[in-house]
Amino acid sequence: MADPIIEIPPLRLLESAGRKGNAVGESFSDTTRGSIDSETSSNNAETALKSPVSADDTQKSFTSASSEKDITDFDPSDKQNDPPILEHEGLPPKFYGPVGLNSVLEEVKKYLGMLFLFTIGPIVAFHIAVIQLWEFLDQKIFKGCYLLGKLSEKLSPITSSFVRYPETDGFLVHFLIWLGLIMPAYFFYELYLVHTHGIGWDGVAGFSWKRIALYNMFRIGPMYRNFMHCYTWCHKEAHTNGNLWNLKWNQFLSNVPVVGDLLTSKLSILKYPFNSWCALFQGVVPGTFTYSHLYNHHRYDNDDRDIYCTAFRPRDSFDNLLKYIPEFFGYATNITTLAAFYFGVGKTQKEKAATRNYKHFQATLLSTLYYVSFVAMCWKIHALFTFCTLVYALLEGNILLAIVNMVWHAFIDDRDPSSDFINSTNVIEGLNFTANEEYHTMHHQYAGAHWTSNRSLFDKHDKTEGSDVSEETHGDNIEAKQGKVAGSETAVSETVNGSMKSPGSHKTTASTEECNSYQDFNNGIGLAPTVFYRVNVFDVFAKIIAKDYYGLADDYCKEYMKGASRREIALLMKRRLRTHGKDLAEHCGKRGSDAKKQL
Question: Helices 121-137 & 103-119, crossing angle to 10 degrees?
Fold first, then answer.
């Protein structure tokens, strides 16, 4: 017999003046969240875990008290009997209706998205298909990635002295050599040939599309490995403020007479090699991670002030994806970032004035001009080659990153829009991703923590017993130092008895209208988190756009909704994908968290 349609009661958001936002789980008052400055970042990583866990630990299989069947699948009879989900079913009672955005601007964004996706999209799709085939053949026949991995393991003890965490991060030197020396050398070799000789594939004079295709295939790597690692380590490098490397090296750079500030700046190839050099060839514009991502996205956590907020439109719509892509490109090219830093963001002129940051505006502008100058130099040498390599990498990479970010923040619950456990997607043992990036809730709560810590931090929040425990789940996670908050331009901190308190830290009581730990639903004290199990992020995206809610339910980690049927989980997925609107965006992330504290 088919499961009945769920009628989820319209629980009202923040309506009770006496209610406070709750958090159930362990307290992490020793770790802060959000963007961080150089000294703070190292403390944050060490505070989250005194020393990074073994890299092998991050690969351990997910275990729980329930059986493997509970985690990965439903009874086959459920799938046979589940009726189709009708259009009117599972819709949220709040935050569902007009987007609240300028209709003309929305149409402009839609056509810009069509321009991006329908011109570059087919090439990107073909490119992805080729590198997936390459990955398949490599795993089955050539074993190239496996052999390189083994070589990296052998070399890590030698190269580990150059990194901050020698126990786990020696391989970063190998990636830096590959992405920062070998791949750029390949690029400049091809640029030299096409400029000097115009040599084609078989030595015949003329521009060669085959050579371009081969270069781009090697640039992105099998199953987008090169692009993935460049993007990931740009990301991590920004959050650690260049402290991926041996601290003695960073200290040496700081002490160089006269030019010390230049050598340690966020444009320094010596301290920020992934963001300032490797990124140029993979389509990551310097400044996107080191300024916009830190001081906009992590400051506001997907609320209406976040320049690539996902909350304004339903995420299970291809039309809305078209509108979102230009917004993400505005961030990826630093255009909307510059506007946000210069004019400020917010609903009122007073709020906009308070959020302006001319220092970050100047730094982002300089980073952008640096990238434009590099592309212009190559363009002058050979325009078509530069468009097909550097410019194409920018277009391809950020179409992919727009999709990834859409998945990271696709699920929003109208009952608790600011919950990191719902708003940020987690994938346990995610496929084809690296450095535990798929534990996205942990990344937003402990942005400066070492990559090996994400799984352990996830497990700490994964409480199996319900209890009323206060926890600091909201705030900007800026760490206190000598009575001040490093990077205090990103948040206003509170001082309690002379000591610093994380912005948003508050004791709360349990409420079924919120989600503040992974086991709230199972303990009967809150909503279920957004957690999938052993799935590729792009597979999740495909099911979102296809409105395959049952498929999403199949990928959902059943450990966190024990007793729920496949249909119940599917309807919850639909509800969280359809919840949208300007009003919703104003209740997400940092703004929603701050609203909770006022109650």
Answer: 50
How far is it, in rounded angstroms, from Cα 558 to Cα 477?
30
Residue 206 token pair = 């003329």
Q: Report angle CA 19, 25, 31 to the nearest 5 degrees.
A: 105
Using CA atoms, how far residue 440 sits from 198, 341, 431, in Å, is: 46, 25, 14
Cβ proximity of 227 and 400 under 8 Å: yes
Identify which of 135, 139, 177 has the alpha carbon closest to the alpha carbon of residue 155: 177
Whether residue 415 contacts residue 422, with contact meaning beta carbons closer than 8 Å, is answered with no
Helix (H) or strand (E) holding 499: strand 499-501
CA distance 409 to 491: 22
- Pairwise CA distance, residues 244 & 165, whole Å: 8
Residues of the chain short of pLDDT 50, as ranges, are 1-69, 464-510
What tokens appear for 174 in the block?
């190998």
Segment (H or E) for 430: none
Q: What is the spatial distance between Cα 505 and Cα 477, in angstroms, rounded to a whole number?
A: 10
pLDDT at 499: 30
Tokens describing residue 321: 């994806």
What's the rounded Cα separation, in Å, for the pair 593 and 548? 31
- Tell me the residue type at 161: S
Asked if 27 contacts 521 with a C-beta cutoff of 8 angstroms, the reply is no
- HSE (CB half, 13 Å, CA atoms) of 332? 25
- Cα distance between residue 502 and residue 458, in whole Å: 19
Q: What region does 207 belong to: left with phi over 0, alpha with psi -120 to 50, or beta?
A: beta
What burial class does residue 83 get, using C-beta atoms within 10 Å of its C-beta: 0-12 exposed, 13-18 middle, 19+ buried?
exposed
Do residues 425 and 442 lie in contact, with contact meaning Cβ atoms separated by under 8 Å? no
pLDDT of residue 516: 87
At residue 79, the pLDDT reads 65
3-state class (DSSP) for residue 204:
coil
Global pTM reads 0.81
Q: Of 479, 471, 73, nearest to 239 (Cα)? A: 479
CA torsion angle 532 51 228 184 (round to 10): 180
pLDDT, position 510: 40
